[in-house]
Design a protein that fits this description.
137 residues
Length: 137
């Protein structure tokens, strides 16, 4: 088995369970704070499965940044596309956002802005840390 596929699966398995845990916490908060909050067994089951898959994918796709023979744009493209697809499908499947063009456009723009804000922040922090470590050498 390719080492990157193996890493993807290991990371996904290690962290996939966090999705349903976070979902359970959110549902518990909603139950305590929203009057007459109800959820069906089907919605709970769908939420558990979809958030497990979402967390699995989110943890696994970090392997794209570690494939040394890939350029940064290629790695970024596959990472972004995988996360965007996973989040979009999860949110639509759970009816957390409606499947309407205007809503999907707003979701997409927010996702893109947040993704690149986080990515740029991590990139800058890594560069600063690298410079500090290189100065110590």
């Amino acid at each position: 088995m390719n080492k990157h596929v193996k890493n993807f699966l290991q990371r996904g398995l290690a962290f996939g369970g966090f999705g349903p845990v976070i979902l359970a916490i959110i549902y518990a908060i909603l139950e305590k704070t929203v009057p007459d909050f109800t959820i069906t067994g089907y919605e709970i089951c769908l939420g558990i499965i979809s958030t497990y898959i979402l967390a699995f994918v989110q943890a696994g796709v970090t392997v794209f940044n570690q494939i040394e023979h890939w350029s940064l744009p290629k790695s970024l493209f596959f990472h972004f596309t995988s996360l965007f697809a996973a989040y979009s499908l999860c949110y639509v499947a759970n009816s957390w956002i409606p499947f309407e063009p205007k809503v999907l456009l707003i979701f997409s723009l927010i996702f893109i802005a947040v993704y690149f804000a986080v990515w740029i922040t991590v990139f800058i922090c890594t560069k600063v840390l690298s410079k500090k470590l290189n100065k110590k050498l």
